[in-house]
Design a protein that fits this description.
Elements: H1 9-17, H2 28-46, E1 49-59, E2 62-73, E3 79-83, H3 101-131, H4 136-144, E4 148-152, E5 157-163, E6 171-177, E7 182-191, E8 199-208, E9 214-223, E10 228-239
Antiparallel strand pairs: 1-2, 1-10, 2-3, 4-5, 5-6, 6-7, 7-8, 8-9, 9-10
Helix pairs in contact: 1-2, 2-4
Length: 242
Amino acid sequence: MKHTALAGCVVTVATLLGPMTSAQAPSAQERAAALKQSLAANQAALHRYAWVETTTITVKGEVKKQEEKQCYYGADGKVQKTPIPGASAPQAAPPSSGGRRRGRLKEEIVEKKVGELKDYMERAAALVHSYVPPDSDKIQAAQAAGHLSAQPGAANTVTITIADYLKPNDKLAIGFDTAVKQLTAYNVNSYVDKPKDDDVTLAVTFGRLEDGTSYPQQVLLNVVSKKIQVKVVNAGYKKNPS
């Protein structure tokens, strides 16, 4: 997962967007270039770190899966993940039935439903990593297609909106404060399988390391119609000795 690149748009977006009172606003092409450049810069900085990723999946408020993994970037530039022993909570087993043939049939139906739910939960969790961090190539493609826009907000804030980023009719909204040069919001509206049937909202809360590097401290995804929530927490950042 390349999730830690997300907050990298802070530095370069700040430079190119400039003060909200600037006489000439930057073009959409400049904004897209800024995002792409800053993603690469922050990604490079975060390659020096290792951290712990905790993923919790709940259904109707009940924890169905929880796991922790030690994460770091390998030589190939990809995130390597190692499960932490004893940190995972097992999924609840399907309830057993007391009958014979009818009981066995009921048990098979329950097992099938549990299997389908497990598969859906995994796909919902995978969706988190499809949006966090944003991919610079997809941002550039959205800009080329005219799907990127920027809207000034209150004080020194601006919202960068990207439509049709990963799926048709999805939307990213990136809030940025030009005064303090920090992201203020990162929100996604998307879906797992079908629009309206299983619409998804995703929100990111940011943290900052001692050297000023930003990272996604918490990512929260909700599938409202199915009452499924996926929460990913990244913590324990340390310089990787390797």
